[in-house]
Automatic annotation (TrEMBL):
<feature type="domain" description="Mur ligase central">
    <location>
        <begin position="116"/>
        <end position="290"/>
    </location>
</feature>
<dbReference type="InterPro" id="IPR013221">
    <property type="entry name" value="Mur_ligase_cen"/>
</dbReference>
<dbReference type="GO" id="GO:0009252">
    <property type="term" value="P:peptidoglycan biosynthetic process"/>
</dbReference>
<dbReference type="Pfam" id="PF08245">
    <property type="entry name" value="Mur_ligase_M"/>
</dbReference>
<keyword id="KW-0133">Cell shape</keyword>
<keyword id="KW-0961">Cell wall biogenesis/degradation</keyword>
<comment type="pathway">
    <text>Cell wall biogenesis; peptidoglycan biosynthesis.</text>
</comment>
<protein>
    <recommendedName>
        <fullName>UDP-N-acetylmuramoylalanine--D-glutamate ligase</fullName>
        <ecNumber>6.3.2.9</ecNumber>
    </recommendedName>
</protein>
<keyword id="KW-0547">Nucleotide-binding</keyword>
<dbReference type="InterPro" id="IPR004101">
    <property type="entry name" value="Mur_ligase_C"/>
</dbReference>
<keyword id="KW-0436">Ligase</keyword>
<dbReference type="GO" id="GO:0005737">
    <property type="term" value="C:cytoplasm"/>
</dbReference>
<dbReference type="GO" id="GO:0008360">
    <property type="term" value="P:regulation of cell shape"/>
</dbReference>
<dbReference type="Pfam" id="PF02875">
    <property type="entry name" value="Mur_ligase_C"/>
</dbReference>
<comment type="function">
    <text>Cell wall formation. Catalyzes the addition of glutamate to the nucleotide precursor UDP-N-acetylmuramoyl-L-alanine (UMA).</text>
</comment>
<keyword id="KW-0131">Cell cycle</keyword>
<feature type="domain" description="Mur ligase C-terminal">
    <location>
        <begin position="312"/>
        <end position="425"/>
    </location>
</feature>
């Protein structure tokens, strides 16, 4: 396992555990750095803190006292902790660097990094690139927001290995020197304003992906979205666009029959297994990143003709008596649910709701034309009820959870219907993760008679 050999700080505070905090603290400790860990969860309820304490790491739990910063030179924070947290604010006021653990991952592995961000499509694109490189015979690792902690995975890499990172704005805002050789910027839509407060800050956070790139690096970006085009004008790297609307001499594009990279036909569109206009954007971005990283056209074609999607993202679960169930629990914003609804022409029962973030739902209205009923749950259920009423959807029910939602949707459905879990909201009002929410839904579907 690799360690940090030229780390310039001797005393580091890790704030917030979960998987990323535990990985960062362990890496720093194994690298000979004095580490202090601070986590809000009490020690007796905190097995991760207990484990770190048993390793000889100083642990402070139960609150975030300002004294945790005493004698500290550097702060690694869990991405989920907002910057208006008092301890983070004091650290910044004292001039301490405040980073997320992906900064440590970069210190371990500065070559052959692919970083992927966007408001939607990150997981699908990251997985596609990973599979394309693997199918091309390259030693490849996948990490980041996709579930594998980057700084842990980076410790296991060899010199020529490639690491594909899914990166959220929460992770990127906490970077200083981080620089992927290939950056992929998929799209930018209003999201996470409860954390970032303004679109300007959210945009700035996403643009950290390529802020440190040089003329030796590549930036794959969505040429069809003006806000992305505007942001990438500041990049020093080589721009590689993708577009569904125009022919490109320097990127990925399509005509009515083929997908191309520059002038080279890559694959016939009808051979691509993954459906949906939004997924074609993800595919275009993945093709560019994979080719720039040394993937073969044969490897790319193999993946595109066999890859049907990732778990919890438009995942086909099961057909029960002519009803097709889809798990799109990873749809945590309106755009993702819009994309999901556009994928079907059949009568659809939509299962939606979750964490209240103050967002209006009006932008969903044009996409409800095939929705015959809505089953609603979570904090936003009353808002979705009003959306149903305003759009002439007479059949709607409020339930306690996605298990009940699946059961009620089946009861209300007819042969030929699609039953779609696409919540358009984060899961944290009822579930620890969107994965937990999706798993409950799938378990319920598999028990239907």
């Amino acid at each position: 396992m690799k360690t940090l050999t030229q780390f310039p700080y001797n005393n580091v505070l890790v704030i917030g555990l979960a998987k990323s905090g535990e990985a960062a603290a362990t890496l720093l400790h194994n690298s000979g750095v004095r580490v202090r860990v601070n986590d809000r969860k009490p020690l007796e309820e905190n097995p991760q803190a207990q484990k770190l304490q048993a390793m000889g790491i100083e642990v402070i739990t139960g609150s975030h006292p300002i004294t945790a910063l005493d004698d500290m030179e550097y702060v690694v924070k869990n991405p989920g902790i907002p910057y208006d947290n008092e301890l983070i604010q004091v650290a910044i006021d004292r001039g301490l660097p405040v980073v997320t653990e992906v900064e440590l991952a970069y210190m371990l592995m500065q070559d052959h990094l692919i970083g992927i961000t966007g408001s939607n499509g990150k997981t699908t694109t990251t997985t596609l690139v990973y599979e394309m490189l693997k199918a091309s015979g390259k030693s490849t690792h996948i990490a980041g927001n996709i579930g594998n902690v980057a700084s842990h995975v980076a410790q296991t890499t060899e010199q020529e290995d490639v690491m594909v990172l899914e990166l959220s704005s929460f992770q990127l805002i906490g970077t200083e020197t981080f620089k992927p050789h290939i950056a992929v910027f998929l799209n930018l839509y209003e999201a996470h304003l409860d954390y970032h407060k303004t679109m300007d800050h959210y945009s700035y956070s996403k643009a950290r992906l390529f802020a440190n790139q040089t003329e030796d690096d590549y930036l794959v970006y969505n040429k069809d979205q003006s806000v992305v085009q505007q942001l990438v004008t500041t990049a020093k790297s080589i721009l590689v666009p993708f577009s569904q609307k125009e022919k490109l001499n320097n990127g990925v594009w399509k005509d009515g029959q083929y997908l191309y990279f520059k002038s080279e036909p890559i694959i016939e569109l009808q051979r691509i297994m993954l459906e949906g206009k939004h997924n074609l954007e993800n595919i275009m971005a993945a093709v560019a990143a994979a080719l720039l990283s040394g993937a073969t056209v044969e490897g790319i074609r193999h993946v595109l003709t066999t890859f049907a999607g990732v778990k919890h993202r438009m995942q086909f679960v099961k057909e029960v008596h002519g009803r097709r169930f889809f798990n799109d629990s990873k749809a945590t914003n309106l755009l993702a649910t819009q994309n999901a609804l556009q994928s079907f022409t059949q009568p659809t029962i939509l299962l939606a709701g979750g964490l209240e973030r103050g967002n209006a739902l009006d932008d969903l209205a044009p996409f409800l034309r095939n929705v015959k009923a809505m089953i609603l749950f979570g904090e936003t259920a009353p808002k979705f009820k009003q959306l149903a009423i305003q759009n002439g959807i007479d059949t709607y029910e409020l339930v306690d959870n996605v298990k009940q939602a699946a059961e009620r949707a089946y009861h209300l459905s007819e042969e030929g219907d699609v039953i779609l879990l696409s919540p358009a909201c984060a899961s944290w009002d009822q579930y620890r993760t969107f994965e937990e929410r999706g798993d409950m839904f799938m378990d319920a579907v598999h028990t239907l008679k």
